[in-house]
Amino acid sequence: MSTWRHYLPGWACWALVARNFRVWRKLWLPSLLGNFGDPLLYLLALGYGLGHFVGRIEGMSYITFIASGIVASSVMNTATFEGLYSAFTRMSVQKTYAAILATPLEVSDVLAGEMLWSALKGTISAVAIIVVASFFGAIHWAGVPWALPVILLSGMAFAAIALTVTAISRSYDFFMYYFTLVVTPMFLFCGVFYPLKTLPTLGQTIAQFLPLTHAVALLRPWLTGHWPTDIALHLAVLAGYTVVGYTLAILLLRRRLLV
């Protein structure tokens, strides 16, 4: 087996995606309800409740403003949860990875399959939010085809980071550090609920290094009928997180699985 196959995935990674899909299909309804239940509550409570006091923001109603941000954060949360809890369960509890690696599949195939599956679940969750938000007139459908590839790429980026954390985790408890120190700050300070320009200069600078900021910067314009600026920069940051996250995860996971 050539060395590159130890680190670069082949088409076999789709076998893992298919396997995970067949498992998910048995519980798709409660899974889907869990994926967009919280975002829907945020959309209703903040869009209508807080939106009554905020009024219009950046030329649009507040519910329209936050709908696109919630789509982005939903991708982050869903892909992250799948890359942490579900992947850890398959790796350490169910020993699914050990069984898979007894076949011709490599660790790279397993990792790429998990990233793709996490990104697909994030995309499913995002589409569900888009459909619900459209009932409130908060989505511009003409921009959805442009938004879907960004949603998938964002899911890959968040999944890559999550799988890196999973590769060094010894228990489910460890994930709380990641949620508290990384996921929650991104949720609150990356432009989901308010424009970044309202943050202090230092806060704006830090936010530019976080992937959710760039996902929101692309998805909000497209989902509200506008064209985003600095598209290449935002895509490069999301792609960079995907590549760097994958590289770290493959090195750590190979060490973890002693392959």
Number of DSSP strand runs: 2
Q: How much of the polypeptide forms β-strand, as a percent range?
A: under 5%
Number of helices: 10
The share of residues in helices is: over 70%
Subcellular location: Cell inner membrane
GO molecular function: ABC-type transporter activity
InterPro entries: ABC2_TM, ABC2_TM_bact-type, ABC_2_transport, ABC_transptNodJ, Nod_factor_ABC_transporter
Subunit structure: The complex is composed of two ATP-binding proteins (NodI) and two transmembrane proteins (NodJ).
Write the layout of secondary structure elements.
Blueprint: H1 13-25, H2 28-54, E1 56-57, E2 60-61, H3 62-93, H4 96-100, H5 107-134, H6 144-168, H7 175-189, H8 201-207, H9 211-223, H10 231-256
Antiparallel strand pairs: 1-2
Helix pairs in contact: 1-5, 2-3, 2-5, 3-5, 3-6, 3-9, 5-6, 5-10, 6-9, 6-10, 9-10
Subunit structure: The complex is composed of two ATP-binding proteins (NodI) and two transmembrane proteins (NodJ).
InterPro entries: ABC2_TM, ABC2_TM_bact-type, ABC_2_transport, ABC_transptNodJ, Nod_factor_ABC_transporter
Subcellular location: Cell inner membrane
